[in-house]
Specification:
Aspartate Aminotransferase, domain 1, 2 domains, 12 helices, binds pyridoxal-5'-phosphate, EC 4.4.1.8, PyrdxlP-dep_Trfase, Cys/Met-Metab_PyrdxlP-dep_enz, lyase, pyridoxal phosphate
Length: about 400
């Protein structure tokens, strides 16, 4: 039907305009779609969504989301990637892909807390056996593996208390018994810890962090190398109806090109700031994987090729929570809030769960810092003026 035979109304809906071919620019195109159009009945009937080599429905991907998936898989050294609406949603996909009623999963005590919360839910309402392990257990994890253990979660370094686990030892023990190891590799952004190279089967990224890089969106990714694991991850992703916004995907693609440069700057500045804090009498421990105080530092030295900008400190035990709260509120450049990986430095106080048996530093206040892209000299000046409120 050409323009002359169509009514004005139909012409408004079905445009005949075809832009000239040959447009070329660096930014990837942003495709918005629920419906994907098939040209033939045969194409519609033979559609296949897992393989990423055709398009079937907006939820299963567009050129925009496929581009980001390929980029994230490439950074991590994997072959397959699915995107999720948050880092936590990516974690959920892994649990749903590999666990069922009657199965057992091992989760480290220092895991990102919502992952633990999800574990508690699986245990309470879904008949999954969930056990928590000391992240520094190393090869001893072999003794925890039961006949029904299907999945071991690991996070390196762990959230808040920053212990660095021996992932190769976990993977060796797990693989001898056919157990899958999923690594939350968010801290390293896939840049300075080669999770697959150290044995991981599945890698999760909170793309919200360094990949998004601007504290403005939420996204997650599940990456794998293995075809069969990828199939299960894709089935869970599809069944849960997980999709991401094309505009958010574009923002991540836009940030991704500068991610390594931002990560390195954040990591370098974190070393400068943490080194300064280490000299201060108010601080008793630097829980930064690159510092000897941090449990698992030797493993960090062995397995990592660089550092990110997220770390914690313990205050001297003479300081009360009320005092360190005052310190936090006195900070001006460091803003207080959750998440990290953006351009701005952040601080958060944490109370370590009372039921965490492996934590014996309860007399010390713990504060986590994220170092952004400000001049570290200004960040140090800010810390110095805020520390002066302590005494
Ligand atoms: C932030 C974070 C997540 C969750 O990411 P969201 O996008 O906030 O859901 C998961 N794991 C780690 C280690 C994180 O830091």
């Amino acid at each position: 039907m050409n323009a002359k035979t169509k009514s004005k109304q139909t012409g408004i809906v079905h445009s005949d305009y075809v832009p000239p071919a040959g447009f070329s620019a660096f930014p990837p195109a942003v495709y918005h779609a629920s419906t994907v159009i098939f040209d033939t009945v045969e194409a519609l009937r033979s559609r296949e969504w897992i393989g990423r080599d055709s398009y079937t429905y907006g939820l299963h991907g567009t050129p925009t989301t496929f581009t980001l998936e390929a980029q994230l898989a490439n950074i991590e050294g994997g072959n397959h990637c699915v995107l999720a609406p948050s880092g936590l949603a990516a974690i959920t996909i892994v649990d749903m892909a590999f666990l069922k009623t009657g199965d057992d999963v091992l989760i480290p005590e220092n895991i990102y807390n919502p992952n633990r919360e999800l574990g508690n839910w699986l245990s309470k309402d879904f008949g999954v056996s969930v056990r928590y392990y000391d992240p520094l257990i190393g090869a001893g994890i072999a003794d925890l593996i039961l006949p029904n253990t299907r999945l071991i979660w690991a996070e390196t370094p762990g959230s808040i208390t920053m212990e660095v686990p021996d992932i190769p030892a976990f993977c060796k023990a797990a693989h001898e018994k056919g157990v899958i190891v999923a690594v939350d590799n968010t801290w390293a952004a896939g840049l300075v810890f080669d999770a697959f190279g150290h044995g991981a089967d599945v890698v999760v990224q909170a793309v919200t962090k360094y990949q998004a890089g601007a504290s403005d969106l939420l996204m997650g990714a599940v990456i794998t190398r293995d075809e069969e694991l990828n199939r299960k991850i894709n089935m869970a992703h599809m069944r849960l109806g997980m999709g991401v916004s094309p505009d958010d995907t574009y923002l991540v693609l836009r940030s991704l090109a500068s991610m390594k440069v931002r990560f390195e700057k954040s990591g370098e500045s974190s070393m400068i700031v943490a080194n300064w804090l280490k000299q201060r009498p108010e601080i008793s421990k630097i829980l930064h994987p690159a510092f000897p105080d941090c449990p698992g530092h030797d493993i960090f030295e062995r397995d990592f090729t660089g550092t990110g900008g997220l770390f914690s400190v313990l205050f001297d035990e003479r300081y009360t929570e009320a005092q360190t709260d005052r310190f936090l509120e006195a900070l001006k450049l460091f803003k207080m809030g959750f998440s990290w990986g953006g351009t701005h430095s952040l601080s958060v106080p944490y109370r370590i769960r009372p039921d965490r048996k492996d934590w014996n530093q309860r007399d010390h206040q713990l504060i986590r810092f994220y170092i952004g892209l400000e001049d570290p000299a200004d960040l140090i000046a800010d810390l110095e003026q805020a520390l002066s409120t302590l005494d």
